[in-house]
Specification:
Order of helices and strands: HHHHHHH
Mean pLDDT: 89
Distance between the termini: 30 Å
Shape: elongated
Number of domains: 2
Largest sheet: none
CATH topology of the largest domain: 434 Repressor (Amino-terminal Domain)
Number of strands: 0
Number of helices: 7
Oligomer: single chain
Strand content: under 5%
Helix content: 55-70%
């Protein structure tokens, strides 16, 4: 196994192990900062004092979290002020391997579709089973080669 392949496998394991942990986790309707603050019984002014900001800034912070406009640093500072820690993750909907396979299939389908169009113009189109077999073959070839434009949309 090459160094690049070993590193890729290690990255896949890290992401695939995190995915199930994040799968059932959704942000509360009021956002994490407000929800944790309320769970702790901490008022907005108390959190503001701990952060060294104004009370109005806490309201702005909680609203900006809901809008997705808050920075990770700000979230981390707020979490620490409440005796918590910030945890975040970016994980695929399924697994890394499945995401890669789906992209390869997408690329292969575009190639087979273009080939089929040209072949049909020459009255040499493939049958449904032939097209499926070609799609599987091209998908495996793309997965094996991983061309530089792999993640470019077809």
């Amino acid at each position: 196994m090459s160094v690049k392949a070993a590193a890729s496998a290690q990255y896949r394991r890290i992401v695939d192990q995190a995915a199930p942990l994040a799968a059932g986790l959704a942000a509360p309707a009021e956002g994490w900062i407000r929800t944790v603050r309320k769970a702790l019984g901490m008022s907005g002014p108390q959190l503001a004092r701990r952060l060294g900001v104004s009370r109005a800034r806490i309201s702005t912070l909680e609203l900006s979290e809901l809008d997705g406009a808050v920075s990770l640093k700000t979230m981390q500072d707020a979490a620490e002020a409440m005796g918590c820690r910030l945890v975040y993750a970016v994980v695929p909907e399924t697994t890394v391997g499945r995401a890669v396979e789906q992209q390869a299939l997408k690329k292969a389908a575009a190639l087979v579709r273009r080939s089929s169009t040209h072949m049909a113009l020459e009255d040499q189109s493939l049958s449904g089973a032939g097209r499926d077999a070609e799609l599987a073959r091209v998908t495996q070839d793309i997965l094996a080669r991983r061309p530089p434009d792999f993640w470019d949309d077809p």
